[in-house]
Amino acid sequence: MKKRILFCLLMVLVSSLAAAAQDTKMQPLTFWYEYAINPGKEAQFLDLVKTVGAPVRDKLMADGVVLAWGVEVPLLRQPGGVTHLIWYSVADLAGVEKVDAAMRAQIAKLDEEGMKGTATAKKGSATPGGGVTSRIQEVADMSKTHDYLTRDLVFVTGSGNPPAGALPWVRYNFVKVKPGKGGELRKTWEKYNKPVLDKLVADGTVLAYGLAVEELRTDGDFTHYVWYATKDLAGMDKVRAAYTADRDKRSQEEQDVIAAEFAKLLDLDASRSEMARSVIFKVGGMK
Fold it and tell me: So what's the pLDDT on residue 162?
C-alpha cells in the first residue's frame, strides 16, 4: 500500500511538472544583422539574401530550429544610417549556434564555388563572378555593420499565423532604464501598457508584440525596447488611438501617477522610436 501511495504521489508530481513546463512562457532570442547598403545596390543585396541566407534559414525553420525570420527596411532614412535589417528568432542559444554554423558552411561553400570561376558555376548561382564574401563587400559598407542578440521577456502573438505573403510593419520603442530598475519597469509596463496591447492582439489589430532586452549588451544605447507588428500603417494609428483612449478614461490624478512612475524609472532623453516595413517575413507553419 505504501509503495502504491508513493507511486501515485510520484505520478502527480511528474504530471504537475509537465503541466508547469507547458505553461512556461517562451522567451525567444532574436539575432539582428544591421547593414548599410551602398546606394544603388539594394536589389543585389536582396538577391544575396534570397540565394544565400534564405535557403539556410528556411531549412532550419522546417527543422524547427528557426521560429521566424525576415528582412526589414526602416521607414525613415538617416545619413550614414542602417538601410536593411536581417533577423531570425530561435528558442535558445543552441539555435543561434546552429544558424551560425549553417551560415558559415553555406558561405564557405559558395565562396569555394566562386573561386572555381563562372565557367563552372550553374546558371542562377548565388556566386556569379566571384564568391559571396566579395559580393557582400561590394554591396554593403561593412564598417557600419552591427549585430544584436535580444531576448523577449514578454512575447505575445495572435491565435493564428499571418497569411502567406504578409509583410507587416513593426514599431520599436527603445528606452534606457535606470540602473537596478529593470524589474520595476517590467512590472509597471505590464500593469499599464500590456493590457492595451493584449486587447489589440485579441481584435486582430496587433499581430504580435514583445518587451525585449539585449541578451548581450553592446553599445548601451538602450536597455529595453517594446515592439509590435501590424499588417499595415493603419494598424499603427489604431494602436496610438487605443493608448490615448486608455489614458483619457483615467482621472488626471491617475494619469499623473502613471507618467511619474515611468519617469522615475527611465532616462527619458535616451528614448527613441523606429518603424520598419518587412520586405521578407516568414513564420514557422505559415500557410
Answer: 65
pTM recorded for the entire structure: 0.84
Question: Residue 16's pLDDT is what?
Answer: 30
- Give the amino acid at 223: T
Among 155, 151, 150, 237, which Cα is nearest to 190's? 155
Share of the chain above pLDDT 70, in %: 84
Find the domain containing 253 and state its range: 172-274
- 69 with 136, same domain? yes
What 107-110 contacts at long range (C-beta under 8 Å, 24+ apart), as own/partner pairs, is 107/52, 107/132, 107/133, 110/52
The structural domain count of the chain equals 2
Confirm whether 63 is domain-assigned.
yes
- Nearest Cα neighbor of 194 from 155, 249, 241, 235 is 155
Domain harbouring 93, CATH code: 3.30.70.100
Residue 60 falls inside a structural domain:
yes
- The answer to whether residues 36 and 110 belong to one domain is yes
Count of H-run helices and E-run strands, the chain: 9, 8
Q: Residue 183, CB half-sphere, CA atoms under 13 Å: how many?
A: 1
Q: Each residue of 155-181: pLDDT tens digit?
A: 999 876 666 678 999 999 999 999 999
Buried b (16+ CB within 10 A) or exposed e, 139-168: bbeeeeeeebebbbbbbbbbeeebeeebeb
For the chain, which ranges sit under pLDDT 70?
A: 1-24, 117-130, 160-164, 285-287
